[in-house]
Amino acid sequence: MTQQPEIVIDAAPAPDEKATSPFKEFWKRFGKRKIAVAAGIFLLLMYVTAFLAPFILPFGPDSFDYMNTLQTPSALHWAGTDEFGRDIFARLLNGAKLSMFIGFTSVSVGAVIGVLAGLFAGYYGGWLDACTMRVSDVLFAFPGMLLAIGIVAILGPGLTNVIVAVAIFSVPAFARIVRSGTLAHKESTYVEAARAAGASDFIIMFRHILPGVLGAVIVYFTMRIGTSIITATSLSFLGLGVEPSTAEWGAMLSTGRDYMMAGEWHLTLFPGLAIFITVLSFNILGDGLHDALDPKLDRE
Amino acid sequence: MKHLKNAVLGATMLAGAFGTVHAAQAADLSIALNQIIQGLNPQDSNYNVDYSVANGIYERLIAFDGDMKLVPQLATSWEGSDDAKTFTLHLRKGVKFQDGTDFNAEAVKFNLDRLADASLNLKKHSLFKLVESVETPDEYTVVIHLSKPFGAMINTLAHPSVVMESPAAIKKYGKDIAKHPVGTGPFKFQEWVPGEKMVVVKNENYWDSEWPKVDKVTFYPVAENGTRVSMLMSDEVQFVPILPAELMKRVSESDKYEVLEKPGISVWVMAMNMMRKEFKDIRVREAFNLAIDKKAFTQVVYGGHAIVPDSPIAPATQFHATQTPALTTDVAKAKELMKEAGYGDGFSINLWARNNSTEVRMLQFIKQQLSQINVKVDIVPLEGATRAEKLFGSNVTPENAEFDTVIGGWSPSTGDADWHLRPVYSTEGWIPNMYNEAFYSNPVVDKAINDALESADPAKRAEAYDIAQKQIWKDKPVVWLAIENALAGRKKGLTGAFPMPDGTMQYAHAAFEE
């Protein structure tokens, strides 16, 4: 007898159909943030070009030419050539691909772990909450960059380890955001209703609470990609990241630095600009998403 | 700058007053070093930077001039017995240490006995293992007896670490002599703030009344290449003894500064670990040598300020003999040899080096070049101390060494072929003993190196070293990459401060011209 109401709850997909409307609303609101849209379009264009680069550019990122080293920008080499005669523009585009890969993978890994940890900690509370949050506090106590350097120092340099390092130091931030969101949603009437209707913890957490905190997670995710690109390029700049011959922005800056005093400005200017504009774009995009996703802003 | 101006002004006024004194005779000199000073006891140091600053405070029995030719310093003449086991030195008279102690045969014996004493664990003890006894027949004569013939003894005495330290000061300070150096040189130690600066001042009682001509020399350790050059251009320092090639143009463009360039004796090689089956095959080693474009290497890594080796040792090293055929680049032939050896599809290797920017550039260059013969290179830049530990750590054996190939430069600071061929190419030199990183072993080479040591006759030694060089050149245990030039930046008008071919520098005879 008592099982009957459960079926009613589960068979109520009505709210899901309305979900298309918040989505449309989001686009409407996001569209008003012109700078954020521009940043999004820039990033999209950059990555599309980066993926098409091998088919449209006459040079690969690693093709060397010792007869044409350290050339300043020209019609042939748009951003000049480096000390090995490699085309800097081709390397920049390859660096874009890499930065995207590192940024997305590391933040995704960090987000998944952080979201799960925060969700469980916030929902169950007690010792699980205490443990999770104390571990986060410990990780928070280190400045992000220092933590990443420490992790790479233990694991050794390399692309994979950079991703691991950046992922680890993204975890606590996601955990905190999701935990506080979970705490708030846990007390809401609809969760209480679901619980009263006999929904399992799993259903409550993932079906009722998680969608509520996802907005904040998406915003933070976007901004975090910017930060993680900076961290990854910094590690490479310090020689702790990718292998030095890799066409990666931080590594390019690092080797270009030797030639800065010698007047070869283009070796450092372009990778520096690439990092600057990309990270800025991610942050602006994140800001735009924040405004578009925050329901409170509507009433103001 | 202010000091300099005042000093110049003062000197000019003096010149005006007395008429005969050269203007700008007295002034202060500042030098920017590329590394931190580790200690001021060269006998217990492996660092060029320590030898460099010590060059003004201490003196050696025999020294090198700017072209690595032997010149008398505290010994005025010397001779070796035919069996290369007994060496006699005649000392300079009228020399005193800066603390007033007399410099005589006793003082020399005291220093040499210390170096030969294994229990003291001095870092440069290895150079003096063969010393059996030191005799002092009179106050200004020293006779060194060796347990085995060692034809390179005179050059070993000229190694920048073999300085004469005041016996009284050593007794007083013990190990702390590294913080309170007392020698016979033209400059007295004044102050050392580790990591920040070191100051030496004029030794008024120097035995050569002509020198020194500057009152004070200050050393600043500045690791960043660009900063050192900026300091030179802003007149904070007047001499930068180690100048990276890529910054040379900036110094030479200005008419107030000059670049000093000198052929060096550091030979850079990529050693191939011959414990690996691929590198046991001479065809593979030959292919590697053919695939890597040495001319391009000197351009890319040193901006052209280096030469392509024509022997395992540098032309400025004693007993160098030009080898044939000269190194060439022939990728097609290299591919063929690899195919013959059964590696037409190539193989993967790791390649180690230090993580400074010059060596990282070398790593990238070699990776690019070897990709032409399908060899996939995994480059491993290592922090200096880590590299030393993994290469020369006491637990390293030929079987467990982790590297396939490794980049390194070797400069024999004795200026003699022995201290290049023996540590780098002899069987007794296998790491971690010395520096034979290829685990190369050829009885012909070992015998020639030993034959050369058993004689003090230059003709006989030259003959033996010729055999060794020829055989090594044929066996190709390493890829010879480049011999870098010693480059330094200096303010125009400064003389007597210059870089040495072995990577150290001299400033004892520094002077400012008008």
From TrEMBL, chain A:
Transmembrane segments in this chain: where? 35-57, 101-126, 138-156, 265-286
Where would one find the signal peptide in this protein? none
What the entry lists under Pfam families is as follows: BPD_transp_1, OppC_N
SUPFAM superfamilies associated with the record: MetI-like (SSF161098)
**Example of a GO MF term:** dipeptide transmembrane transporter activity
Q: Which Gene3D superfamilies match?
A: MetI-like (1.10.3720.10)
User: How does the record say this protein sits in the membrane?
Assistant: Multi-pass membrane protein
**Location of the protein in the cell:** Cell membrane
What keywords does the record list, in alphabetical order?
Cell membrane, Membrane, Transmembrane, Transmembrane helix, Transport
Give residue ranges for domain ABC transmembrane type-1: 96-286
The cross-references to PANTHER family, in alphabetical order and at most eight, read: GLUTATHIONE TRANSPORT SYSTEM PERMEASE PROTEIN GSID, OLIGOPEPTIDE TRANSPORT SYSTEM PERMEASE PROTEIN APPC
| Free-text function comment from the UniProt entry | Part of the ABC transporter complex GsiABCD involved in glutathione import. Probably responsible for the translocation of the substrate across the membrane.
Protein name according to UniProt = Glutathione transport system permease protein GsiD
From TrEMBL, chain B:
The record's function comment reads: Part of the ABC transporter complex GsiABCD involved in glutathione import. Binds glutathione.
Keyword flag Amino-acid biosynthesis: no
Question: In what residue span(s) does the Solute-binding protein family domain sit?
Answer: 69-429
Report the GO terms under cellular component.
Answer: ATP-binding cassette (ABC) transporter complex; outer membrane-bounded periplasmic space
| GO molecular function annotation | peptide transmembrane transporter activity
What's the superkingdom here? Bacteria
Give the family, as the similarity comment puts it: Belongs to the bacterial solute-binding protein 5 family.
Q: Where is the protein localized?
A: Periplasm
Q: Which CDD domains does the UniProt entry name for this protein?
A: PBP2_Ylib_like
What UniProt keywords are attached to this protein's entry? Periplasm, Signal, Transport
Record's signal peptide:
1-23
Can you supply a Gene Ontology BP term from the record?
dipeptide transport
What is the name attached to this protein's record? Glutathione-binding protein GsiB
Q: Which InterPro entries match?
A: Peptide/Ni-bd, SBP_5, SBP_5_CS, SBP_5_dom
- PROSITE patterns in UniProt: SBP_BACTERIAL_5
